[in-house]
Amino acid sequence: MKILNLAKQAILVPAGIQDVDIEKIMARLLTSSVDAADIYFQSSHSESWVMEGGIIKEGSHSIEQGAGVRAVSGEKTGFAYSDRIELPVLLEAANNVRAIGRQGQEAQIGLIHAANTVQYYPVGNPLKSLGEQQKMDLLRQVDTETRKLDHRIEEVIISLSGVHETILVANQDGSLAGDIRPLVRMNVSVIVVENGRREQGSMGGGGRSDYNYFVELNRGLDYGREAVRQALVNLEAQDAPAGNMTVVLGSGWPGILLHEAIGHGLEGDFNRKGTSAFSGRVGERVASDLCTVVDDGTIAGRRGSLSIDDEGTPTENTVLIENGILKGYMQDKLNARLMGVKSTGNGRRESYASLPMPRMTNTYMLAGKHNPEEIIKSVKKGLYAKNFAGGQVDITSGKFVFSASEAYLIEDGKITRPVKGATLIGNGPDVLTKVSMVGTDLELDSGVGSCGKEGQSVPVGVGQPTLKIDGITVGGTSV
Amino acid sequence: MQNQQEVNRLKDIVQNLLDEAKQQGATAAEAGLSQENGLSVSVRLGDVETIEHHCSQGLGITVYFGQRKGSASTTDLSIESIKETVSAACSIARYTSEDEYAGLPEKALLATSFPDLDVNHPWAITADEAIALAIECEDAARHYDAEITNSEGASVNTHQGIHVLGNSLGFLHGSLSTRHSLSCSVLAQRGDSMQRDYWYTVARNANNLEAAVEVGQKAAQRTLRRLEGRSLSTRQCPVLYSAEIASGLLSSFIGAISGGNLYRKSSFLLDALDTQVFPGFVHIHEQPHLIGASGSSAYDSEGVATHTRDLVTDGILLSYVLGTYSARKLGLHSTGNAGGVRNLTIDPGVLDFDGLLKQMDTGLLVTELMGQGVNILTGDYSRGAAGFWVEKGQIQYPVEEITIAGNLKDMLRNIVAVANDVDYRGNVRTGSILVERMSIAGQ
User: Fold this and answer.
1) Cβ A63–B81 below 8 Å, yes or no?
2) pLDDT in tens, B72-88
3) ipTM of the complex
4) How far apart are CA A246 and CA A470, in angstroms?
5) Which of A336, A402, B274, B278 might form a disulfide with B315, Cβ 3.0–4.6 angstroms?
């Protein structure tokens, strides 16, 4: 209730919009053939700061607000939005949208009532969690300490950003849910040079928290240390191997494997349409029995977490794969209704100006039984990929890629020399069947993931323990 | 007429922003405002899937207090919001550092003439007409072959935007532009092999869009030819980038000669000016004033006049790609490239696509690339790929689940030929490009 009131205070009160006005807009949306309708209000304040060349170079502040109205009839969706949260504008938008249904009598809608929510993160404004001078001091401290770490450091670039977002979703049953979503992020990237060879390293993190997150436990300073370590490793890296080989993936961020290889393919829209390589495969084996994978929006403070999704549904811990068997898909309301199941709280949208669709939250594999050292020891010849950059998937053919940014050769059970980053390519439906060892060291990523789908970007998390894959193609140059 | 009135109204708002910045003590300021309207419809399996009405706006301002800078933006164009946005930017400038390179462009470089580049052609299409067009397109794809078994649908999009840019040096200009597109994506199935591909057409003027049936048929053909793809064994061989993806190679090159990467020394082409970057037959130019093209504009995102110019002649790099800030950091002048290059063109060769396949003889034709495995600092390149294996100049079978890798420095220098099958849809215009040798990783 508290959250809902705060959200109303932030969005509806300044606009002079009352519950009865929302009922009016909803009534306008609902013709007799409309199955579902919602109104989504959003107000978001964000800022970002960049330090480069030893100076605070850039700062920016941004306010984004608006509302989107949607009516769904069968598989058809009508949608309009406006940057102006004003009753006449929203009524006009509703008029445009209702044409999606057949003309008919306006249906009765429920009176606006509060939907209950649990909150997985604090409601305070992260932009105000530190004074401006303290933010600058944090940046300068990380810059100074990072530059001290090694004489080969040539440049350090640090960015700090925060978002304070408030949303409200009204559904046709009259339920009104609100959420206040803080999000902070810090990133350090460094360039090192030695004998004319230049390399880079970068590390960052954050979550649904405030700027004190980077001060606590010296996280900001740790990002600098880690970025320098990676850059120096890259200075030594030789050409990466090419071909199919055994690959050990590190814990944490390499969980991007799960996001690309199976996550997207298990989103409800593709499966309703039958366009995913996983369509119609619930109950089948898609991974070795060592693998249990979940999508969990309920972890406190994580970047990918949400108390409610963008359709007002509370998020869940959804089991996707259990001991190798495909259990289910991630759903938003539209696809859940058309497939005859319940929404799993995965209906997400980039903003009021885009339509929601099934998206991941925090996707990770549960810990297994093997000691990580034991996993490395078991490999005669292969690749140990510790850090990754981005990835991509073709959900229909199932082919996916993810790019290692820090990797080493494994020779006779030992990690030997570093090799250059390379893209790994595999086939989603069978890559997890080749997982032969799963570590005890489950770790979630540090809070840097963003996922793009149909042009919409949303923050996500990934995670996994150390994993051994018996064969995957590594795209190096050393043939 | 109505449009011109709206442009004038938005210009007034931008002028207000600049005045307000001065009022609040800024020594210089730059402001931009965009307004976009549009309609998107998508159909799937012969019926409507979504109808989206777009209407968005936003303004942004950057203020300078001497050499200190602050920026702010908002989607709310009300008078109070303008005041708040300006003061947010001013407040930020209190905390940023003095930066001797910061500031507006040199006044002499700002655009003073604004030729009509023919980029504004509103499309008077109703939602019902757009639906009919999308269905015609999707039908052509679905009925093309029995192996086309499913569809992700077809969509029609039309957008008109007004963009106004002004600064405290007296630059204030508004421009109207349109963009329309039609796209289609279908699935094909044969046994266990399921594939999806797409085709699209995009233009400033809807009359220049490819016919709906043609778009649908191409989507179907491109999908069908991928069925039963296999991997390759790991090897080295020539790689032919088809025209629609070859632009990515040139975009990586542009990234490496862009000011931001150069002054940060994070480019594999540091100090490459006046050196041989490509083989001698390669000529690359920028044509920002092309009539009706996708990247056409008389000025860049800072108001600096754009110019038709040569970037690479006889394979030699003649100029970098610079905005005001990066130019000053490098001790040079802006090249009118704040916001990137506009209508980049590589001169096509004499061979058509089939001719280039024959020249390659045996090697890999790449038609799709996946992932972001391009390191602009080192030039290291490793990406997922799909395409076709070619022998004796003839396509043999589809290939997937492989990677192609090399170093961009070598790849650019080892371009063998550029075909004349230029893809004119995007901002980078190139034909298919044949690279002498790359590493292929597969089974």
Assistant:
1) yes
2) 999 999 889 999 999 99
3) 0.94
4) 5
5) B278
